[in-house]
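Morning, I've got a small favour to ask if you have a moment. I'm working through a protein record and want to make sense of it properly. The fold is given in discrete form, as structure tokens running alongside the sequence. Can you walk me through what the tokens say about the fold? Thanks so much in advance, here it is:
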Amino acid sequence: MNTILEIRNINKSFYQKSALTNLSLKVQKGEIFGVMGPNGAGKTTLIRIINRIFSPDSGSVRFDGNLMVDRDLYHIGYLPEERGLYRNMTVEAQALFLARIRGLSKSDAKVKIDYWFDRFDINDWRKKRIEELSKGMAQKVQFICAVLHEPKLLILDEPFSGFDPVNVELIKQELSEMRAAGKTIMLSTHNMKSVEEICDRAVLIDKSKKIAEGSISELQDAQKSGLHAIRFQGNMIAFVNALWTGFEVEDKITLGDNRFEVHLSMRGESTFEDLLKVLIGHVKIEAAWEMRPSMQDVFIQLVQPNN
């Protein structure tokens, strides 16, 4: 994959307090890239630098292989965390205004507006003023405004806040379809479940510094506990007796009706296959898996040591 966005050694301070410290990362074309971090970590500062709202104190931003310039913003869509629609404008006028700012002609903008308003089922709201909309409806309008010009790179800052679960799924589906069409999405969110579900890679920033970057599986693998889980039906004593010294029970959950879930660690050279071999015939195995941390777990494990 080719790199569409490269951040090189960015530093940014406000009032002598560091917001970003020597930060470098790459976003590849056609991926959904997650930006994670606790409040105040520097995520929004990074996004504003990419959108040329802030200038870095040092370092550079490269877009599509070249040092970024103002005209590159025509190829970027941006949904800020602070939503900022003009409350007295109608929905249609707002969308047309923002499409024109991003370089679309009036006729092209109207075609795109018709497409997206139909896709999001908001045609009945065209002539309503923004102040008349619910928070969720205003969110839909702002998302549409961010994608009208078909950007190469879509940057979303907390895109799921304010949406009900149905609309969260709608946005996730849109993002997946955009990725399938070759678009690139950069997603800053506190919703770790969404990072796990839709992101290809992610970076974790804490206290202005990058502390991890990689694919979702790489980030999870780096924080694995080494535990495996077995869910079975049968006698717990028979289960424990079947084990030999290569395995140690770390936790047990009673599910009822002689069903259990047991978490085990491996000792020495023991493998997962060895574990299954010693259990077969002693209990009825329903499921067996390696226990991988969720992105929520990864986030907590990486951030806590720094706080």
Notes: The chain has two domains: 3-222, 227-291. The chain has a mean pLDDT of 90. The two ends are 35 Å apart (CA to CA).
